[in-house]
């Protein structure tokens, strides 16, 4: 089988400078879902028909093992298939729309299986939409045989009763594809409609049937921003349901957003408004509190991420607690049982097991050992205006509050740094470093000031 993906339309209803099929659902462009689906059923050949003026689409597709075909002008879906004809090499052709990304592999396989079993010449994947829509309508005769497909804008009043819609997915024998040459221009739209192939085939006594094998949550076509948002919601619901089946608790499934490539361990609890993006994996027994956003993270078992915390491209090891209001920036590893508290920012740093930075700190380009205590208000001064420098804090160090560590600098094992210090030099093992100005008390000063007034 060959798969042809029709993706050369202009997508004008999106009102966007970005080509429609490059709009994303979660982290992935719409077209990527369709290509992955096509590849998942192992066809001989995947052909994507695109618009020659949309260079971005061509560039985007260059990373895929697909055959790109240009449709000289966007003159309709039949004209798009016509552009792909010279590339067809198999006896059967599956046609997918580039803007219909949520079809399940199982549905497609069933559709193909029925086609083979019934020895059809052309099958249509149909459905019954529940909302107002712009899909083509499948019309059947008194005996229930498929007659033709009519676009909603061309429907006669008496045909409006029917509700079976065309998903834009067709499976047909290679020879029937030639019939696109006989399709006439639609007078109203000035386009050549692939859907007209149905009426032509019926007229030539080919075996045709439409199968409503799925709901709109799989077959939604994305033409508008509203449909993009609906598709995202459908996919979200599907993903959240799958994780619930696998043992994850969601307090409010309708408010969380989880990308398709995320994985979550059993007994993890996810509070409302959590956003999990990219290649993120969450361990077992974790708690993700409200408004947490994680992107490309590895979160091990028994981790708690508290409210309003953002973590990107980082790892949090077993039993650690992060947040509320923490910002963990890329290339950070938070060790086992660490505690990173409110208003702590960590960037490109390694925090050793059992260490704590419980409040108000910035740790950038730092290597922190085990069981280190970082006091409130501690800052690694990692940037000198030109370059970034490293701070090394070895095991069991205690950094007093409001300390500035001017990098590059090393604090050796077991040392103490007095609160309010500015550390510019290496601190030896087990030493106390203190750099603040000694305190001076002037007796009676405040009283005298008050009396002067
Ligand atoms: C199309 C079907 C409609 C069906 C719906 C399902 C036609 C005439 N109508 O309508 O019956 O219910 O899909 O979602 O086929 N394309 C090209 N070249 C073109 C025009 C379109 O490659 O010249 C591509 C588009 O990029 C898109 C697909 O074909 O991926 C469908 O085109 P679109 O304009 O979205 O058709 P619909 O109005 O949605
Ligand atoms: Ca469409």
What can you tell me about this protein's structure?
The protein is an alpha/beta fold. It has two domains: 2-219, Spore Coat Polysaccharide Biosynthesis Protein SpsA, Chain A (Alpha-Beta Complex), CATH 3.90.550.10; 226-433, 3 Solenoid (UDP N-Acetylglucosamine Acyltransferase, domain 1), CATH 2.160.10.10. It is 19% helix and 29% strand. It has nine helices and 39 strands. The strands form six sheets. It has a 16-stranded parallel sheet that branches. It has a nine-stranded parallel sheet with strand order 14-17-20-23-26-28-30-33-36, with no helix packed on it. The chain is elongated, with a radius of gyration of 31 Å. The mean pLDDT is 96. It binds uridine-diphosphate-N-acetylglucosamine and calcium ion. The site of calcium ion has 4 residues, from loops. Calcium ion binds at residues 97, 99, 221, 223.
**Portion in beta strands:** 25-35%
CATH class of the largest domain: Alpha Beta
Shape by Cα distribution: elongated
For the biggest sheet, the summary is: 16 strands, parallel
Question: What's the CATH architecture of the largest domain?
Answer: Alpha-Beta Complex
The hetero molecules present are: uridine-diphosphate-N-acetylglucosamine, calcium ion
How far from one another are the termini? 95 Å
List the keywords.
single chain, 453 residues, alpha/beta, Spore Coat Polysaccharide Biosynthesis Protein SpsA, Chain A, UDP N-Acetylglucosamine Acyltransferase, domain 1, 2 domains, 16-stranded parallel sheet, 19% helix, elongated, binds calcium ion
């Amino acid at each position: 089988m060959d798969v042809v993906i029709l993706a050369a339309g202009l997508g004008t209803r999106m009102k966007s400078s970005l080509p429609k099929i490059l709009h994303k659902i979660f982290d992935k462009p719409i077209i990527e879902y369709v290509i992955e689906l096509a590849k998942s059923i192992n066809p001989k050949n995947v052909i994507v028909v695109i618009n020659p003026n949309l260079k971005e689409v061509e560039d985007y597709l260059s990373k895929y093992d697909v055959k790109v075909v240009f449709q000289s002008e966007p003159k309709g879906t039949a004209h798009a298939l016509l552009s792909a004809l010279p590339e067809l090499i198999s006896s059967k052709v599956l046609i997918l729309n580039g803007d219909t990304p949520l079809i399940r592999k199982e549905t497609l396989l069933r559709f193909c299986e029925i086609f083979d079993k019934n020895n059809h010449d052309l099958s249509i994947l149909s459905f019954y939409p529940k909302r107002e829509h712009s899909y083509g309508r499948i019309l059947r005769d008194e005996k229930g045989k498929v007659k033709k497909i009519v676009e909603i804008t061309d429907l006669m009043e008496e045909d409006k009763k029917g509700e079976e819609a065309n998903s834009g997915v067709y499976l047909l024998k290679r020879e029937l594809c030639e019939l696109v040459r006989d399709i006439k221009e639609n007078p109203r739209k000035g386009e050549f409609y692939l859907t007209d192939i149905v009426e032509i085939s019926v007229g030539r006594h080919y075996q045709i049937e439409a199968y409503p094998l799925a709901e709109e949550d799989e077959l939604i076509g994305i033409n508008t921003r509203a449909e993009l948002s609906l598709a995202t919601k459908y996919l979200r619901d599907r993903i959240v349901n799958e994780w619930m089946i696998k043992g994850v608790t969601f307090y409010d499934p309708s408010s969380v957003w989880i990308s398709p490539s995320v994985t979550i361990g059993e007994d993890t609890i996810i509070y409302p408004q959590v956003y999990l993006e990219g290649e993120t994996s969450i361990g077992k027994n974790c708690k993700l509190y409200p408004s947490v956003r994680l992107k490309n993270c590895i979160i091990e078992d028994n981790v708690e991420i508290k409210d309003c915390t953002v973590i990107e491209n980082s790892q949090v090891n077993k039993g650690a607690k992060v947040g509320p209001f923490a910002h963990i920036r890329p290339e950070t590893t938070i060790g086992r049982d660490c505690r990173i508290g409110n208003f702590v920012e960590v960037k490109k740093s390694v925090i050793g097991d059992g260490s704590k930075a419980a409040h108000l700190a910035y740790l950038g380009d730092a290597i922190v050992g085990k069981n280190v205590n970082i006091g409130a208000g501690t800052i690694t001064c990692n940037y000198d205006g030109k370059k970034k420098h490293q701070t090394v804090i070895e095991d069991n160090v205690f950094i007093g509050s409001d300390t500035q560590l001017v990098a590059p600098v090393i604090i050796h094992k077991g040392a103490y740094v007095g609160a309010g210090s500015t550390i510019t030099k290496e601190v030896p093992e087990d030493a106390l470093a203190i750099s603040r100005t000694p305190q001076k008390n002037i007796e009676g000063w405040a009283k005298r000031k008050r009396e002067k007034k």
